[in-house]
Design the sequence.
């Protein structure tokens, strides 16, 4: 994937570039608002990571400009401001996702990959399949090896989100935001409890587990590694 | 060679220059005061007005008097010509002498063909004064006998010739007109002096009575700015505008003082509660550095612990920011009607598995929808904090808590209560638990930032709600009461 990072803090940017390159992406970096605006206009990227407060230009104004000329490249807005209203501002300006600083690098990687995937055409699939696990979005049924698994509505949405991002890491905050629509962090790790319940329904008695815990990052649905 | 002379001569002009500069600065300072400005404005406006009045009146009076003089001269000329026509030169001279003797007589003068004076009451005329034939009076300087002395006078005169070649001059002194003008000029002088006096009085009144009060207020506020936060503005007791202003500002200072006290308490708590994890963070980093090169396991464990500690710190900061943001209130003004039963349902669904996993139980008690005006996420966060607390602190020895979340409607209030069956909280501590970083001795060992309930309190204040803490016998019950939106 081609990723543009617009971030003025040199150390943070260096770290980000390194981490994204290690994850196998090709990365470009712009260090201020003017450079960033120029880069999004002339280059072609799969995802743009845009810091909100930049020297010379406000990051949100660049996103607004992009949307104004019909550029639909997914944008992840980074900001030191992380409250509900700041997030709303960022999304209103045309950002696709919003991540407050300080963030875990695994969180940022997971979100960048989810954004790129969301943008790919053919997003309107009616069913997801991972190995022998099939989720039908129209009939709201889940089967594993042809056998139906009964899920609660919330468990269904949880699995749906995980399968939509199959093969990608999904963090706990991403699950809270997308499945529960909560943008705060409950003190207890409620997500882990829900995941273990889901896992017991999906993977129990199966010799090839599909729901994996990614240490220090989150969860992933994928076929067992070779 | 020494040069004592110039250096000795210099101080005098320099100190004079400095004195002038100081005087100038003092004057500039003075001119910036409202009292001086208002007084000067008053002086200028009223002086200009009186000057205008005096000029107009003087001008009009002079014009009228000049016209009267003209008419008198014309009348004299006509009368004398009439006398000459009737009785010749002799009659003219008689009439002229007669008129010259009257009180406040005009000027009369007759000369023969050669220019020798025949009759008149003028001592000396400038040469050629009678040479013209005037149709209208003109101005003329002359000398006149007054009590045996020759005095310089100015007159308006008209000269004409008789048919025998003699010439006659008739005129009127304009001294009276000048005296009237002088009266007006004097009047203006008195008025001007009066203006200055009144301006001075204005300045005195303003600076003494009015601006002195303002100066007192500025001085008091400067003292407060300089650090005397207990200082208050002077109140004279007269109940005037200044007193009302001072009382208002004093109330404000009082409120700020209270808030400052609160902030100080919080910052002390922050300093303490953030320094502890920062110290742990530091210790762990030191541990990782001190580990020997081949001891990867120790290093890894230390780094993981460091990360964990950082995350906890970030959560604490987020919570603090969230509380202050909610308290500022401006971020969430656009409140929509939300159903608290629905919010409670979601929170129950989120926590029920958690309670069960720990061996406890979770019960939701709710009927129909209860709409309130507010922010869904904030109310949800308040509820999750309460449930979280109930799960953490409701534990008694090995007995996991049974948490009950109830949604009810009483009168115009939506009541959301979270109860556990744990050890409860001592009545003396029940209000303190909502303070930032308030962690009771009993709960020091359980994890938590001590900010959860502070956020609940902030959210309730924002939503005009109330919090009551009750004894659930056994356990603790916290009830949130919000106004129902219809």
Sequence:
């Amino acid at each position: 994937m081609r990723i543009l990072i617009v971030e003025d803090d040199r150390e943070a940017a260096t770290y980000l570039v390194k981490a994204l390159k290690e994850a196998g992406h090709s990365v470009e970096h712009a260090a201020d608002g003017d450079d960033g605006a120029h880069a999004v206009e002339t280059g072609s990227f799969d995802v743009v990571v845009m810091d909100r407060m930049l020297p010379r230009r406000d990051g949100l104004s660049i996103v607004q400009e992009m949307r104004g000329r019909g550029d639909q490249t997914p944008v992840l807005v980074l900001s030191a401001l992380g409250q509900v209203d700041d997030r709303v501002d960022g999304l209103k300006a045309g950002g696709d996702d919003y991540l407050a600083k300080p963030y875990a690098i695994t969180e940022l990687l997971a979100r960048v990959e989810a954004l790129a995937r969301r943008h790919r055409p053919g997003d309107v699939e009616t069913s997801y399949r991972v190995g022998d696990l099939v989720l039908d979005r129209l009939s709201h049924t889940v089967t594993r090896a042809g056998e139906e698994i009964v899920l609660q509505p919330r468990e269904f949405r949880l699995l749906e989100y995980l399968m939509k991002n199959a093969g990608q890491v999904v963090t706990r905050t991403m699950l809270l935001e997308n499945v529960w629509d909560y943008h705060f962090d409950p003190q207890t790790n409620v997500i882990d409890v829900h995941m273990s319940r889901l896992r017991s329904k999906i993977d129990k008695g199966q010799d090839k587990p599909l729901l994996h815990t990614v240490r220090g990052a989150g969860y992933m649905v994928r076929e067992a590694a070779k | 060679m020494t040069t004592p002379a110039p250096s000795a001569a210099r101080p005098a002009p320099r100190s004079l220059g400095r004195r002038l500069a100081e005087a100038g600065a003092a004057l500039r300072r003075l001119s910036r005061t409202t009292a001086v400005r208002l007084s000067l404005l008053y002086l200028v406006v009223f002086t200009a007005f009186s000057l205008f009045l005096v000029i107009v009146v003087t001008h009009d009076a002079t014009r009228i008097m000049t016209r009267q003089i003209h008419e008198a001269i014309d009348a004299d000329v006509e009368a004398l010509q009439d006398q000459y026509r009737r009785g010749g030169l002799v009659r003219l001279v008689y009439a002229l002498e007669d008129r010259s003797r009257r009180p406040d007589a005009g000027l009369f003068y007759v000369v023969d063909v050669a220019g020798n004076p025949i009759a008149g009451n003028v001592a000396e005329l400038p040469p050629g004064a009678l040479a013209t034939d005037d149709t209208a009076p003109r101005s003329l300087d002359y000398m006149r006998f007054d009590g045996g002395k020759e005095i310089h006078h100015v007159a308006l005169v008209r000269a004409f010739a008789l048919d025998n070649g003699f010439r006659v001059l008739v005129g009127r002194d304009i001294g009276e007109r000048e005296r009237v003008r002088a009266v007006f000029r004097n009047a203006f002088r008195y008025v001007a002096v009066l203006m200055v006096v009144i301006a001075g009085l204005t300045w005195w009144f303003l600076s003494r009575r009015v601006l002195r009060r303002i100066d007192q207020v500025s001085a008091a506020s400067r003292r407060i700015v300089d650090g005397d936060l207990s200082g208050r503005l002077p109140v004279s007791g007269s109940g005037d505008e200044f007193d009302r202003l001072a009382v208002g500002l004093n109330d404000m200072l009082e409120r700020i003082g209270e808030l400052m006290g609160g902030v100080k308490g919080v910052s002390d708590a922050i300093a303490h509660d953030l320094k502890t994890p920062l110290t742990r963070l530091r210790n762990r980093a030191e541990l990782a550095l001190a580990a020997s090169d081949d001891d990867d396991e120790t290093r890894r464990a230390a780094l993981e612990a460091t990360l964990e500690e950082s995350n906890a710190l970030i959560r604490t900061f987020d919570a603090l920011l969230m509380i202050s943001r909610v308290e500022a209130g401006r971020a969430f003004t656009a409140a929509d009607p939300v159903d608290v039963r629905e919010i409670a349902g979601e929170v129950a669904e989120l926590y029920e598995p958690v309670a069960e996993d720990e061996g406890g139980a979770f019960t939701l008690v709710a009927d129909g929808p209860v709409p309130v005006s507010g922010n869904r996420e904030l109310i949800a966060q308040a509820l999750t904090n309460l449930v979280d607390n109930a799960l953490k602190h409701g534990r008694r020895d090995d007995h996991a808590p049974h948490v009950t979340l109830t949604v009810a409607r009483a009168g115009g209030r939506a009541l959301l209560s979270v109860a556990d069956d744990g050890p409860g909280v001592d009545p003396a501590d029940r209000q303190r638990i909502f303070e930032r970083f308030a962690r009771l001795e009993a709960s020091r060992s359980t994890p938590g930032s001590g900010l959860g309930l502070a956020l609940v309190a902030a959210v309730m204040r924002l939503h005009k709600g109330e919090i009551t803490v009750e004894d659930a016998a056994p356990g603790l019950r916290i009830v949130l009461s919000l106004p129902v939106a219809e």
